[in-house]
Specification:
The chain is mostly beta strands. It has helices at 58-69, 93-111; strands at 3-10, 24-35, 40-45, 77-83, 143-144, 150-156, 159-161, 164-167, 172-179, 185-189, 194-198, 203-209, 214-219, 229-234. Bound molecules: copper (II) ion. Copper (II) ion binds at residues 185, 220, 222-223, 228.
């Protein structure tokens, strides 16, 4: 789900207040932002056709910078600007873009964005890649890998597919992880000290020996809070 923020236009200097005093006006720009597989910028209303409709857009840069400043990899974003504030008329139009992008990106980083890759047509949906097992609504199905020597896991959107593996006690398993999405991810099994970073298109193989019981959680360190987690259940 995208984060939506409305920011009012503002007056220029008020009397003796110079840049310290202003008034909000009943005219708003609306900023809509989400993580996405491919960067998109859409400008509707004021500034459409004049403001950059690509990642050089001020609001896009500010939002991506904030994510980086928060310790995340530079994100791929879908940004939609509905502008009612005239550009370059002293009504703080670029300030609304910056303030709105900062607030929206802060919420996005704190709460996580869409699981579906935003506007990319659902290509990164958790369901789409459920090749390995019969997913039901909401989550890809668990995949039984007991007796197998290797398994593939795809990182896409903000999910691992499959996100749950069923394995045998003490089993040795080669896991090939492919980053099929548009952003960077990690495949991290903290219990085993495994921490692999994958750029888009990267593949990595890790070999794990499973415990005799219990489960082995794996996460993407960048998107753990967005629910990018999984586990290997020993049974
Ligand atoms: Cu990730």
């Amino acid at each position: 789900m995208p984060i939506v923020v409305r920011v009012p236009a503002s007056t220029t200097n008020l009397g003796p207040g110079f840049d310290a005093l202003g008034l909000a006006l009943a005219l708003h720009n609306r900023i809509e932002i989400d993580f996405a597989e491919t960067p998109t910028v859409t400008v509707v209303g004021e500034g459409a056709g004049r403001l950059p409709a690509d990642p050089s857009n001020l609001a896009y840069r500010v939002a991506a910078d904030l994510c980086e400043a928060a310790g995340r990899p530079r994100p791929t974003l879908a940004l939609r600007l509905h502008n009612a504030v005239p550009v370059r008329r002293g009504l703080g139009s670029s300030s609304t873009a910056m303030v709105g992008a900062l607030v929206a990106a802060t919420v996005l980083v704190a709460c996580g964005g869409s699981d579906s890759g935003g506007t990319s047509g659902g290509e990164g949906s958790p369901m789409t890649g459920a090749t390995a097992g019969g997913g039901t609504t909401g989550a890809p199905g668990a995949v039984d890998v007991s007796g197998m020597t290797s398994v593939q896991i795809r990182a896409e959107g903000f999910s691992f597919v499959p996100a749950e593996l069923l394995a045998s006690p003490g089993q040795t398993l080669t896991i090939e992880v492919e980053n099929a999405g548009g952003g960077s991810h990690t495949f991290t099994i903290e219990d085993l000290g495994i921490d692999e970073e994958l750029s888009p298109g990267d593949r990595v193989q890790v070999e794990v020996t499973l415990p005799d019981s219990g489960s082995l959680p794996f996460i993407c360190r960048f998107h753990e809070r967005s629910g990018m987690v999984g586990e290997i259940v020993v049974s």
